[in-house]
Amino acid sequence: MRQAALVLGLDAIAWDEAMHSGLLTTRADDRVCFRHQLMEAVVDEPCSTRPSPV
């Protein structure tokens, strides 16, 4: 998971801190889950508002 985050350009220290604090967790299928739904809403915008690939 950490390697995928680095490939996406996420800050390694911030990723580790979020995992250590429990803000982010990983499921058995390696999907990332947020501890609180409001945090997920801030980070994960609806698909309809994402720019379409060119």
Shape: globular
Helix tally equals 3
- Into which percentage range does the β-strand content fall? 5-15%
Low-confidence stretches: none
**Secondary-structure element order, as H and E?**
HHEEH
Average pLDDT level: 75
Structural description of this entry:
It is a single chain. With 54 residues, the chain is an alpha+beta fold. 43% of the residues lie in helices and 11% in strands. It has one domain (2-47). It has 3 helices and 2 strands.
Question: Can you give keywords for this protein?
Answer:
2 strands; 54 residues; two-stranded antiparallel ribbon
Write the layout of secondary structure elements.
Blueprint (H helix, E strand, L loop, with lengths): L1 H6 L4 H10 L2 E3 L5 E3 L2 H7 L11
Antiparallel strand pairs: 1-2
Gist of the model:
The chain has 54 residues and is α+β, with helices and mostly antiparallel strands.
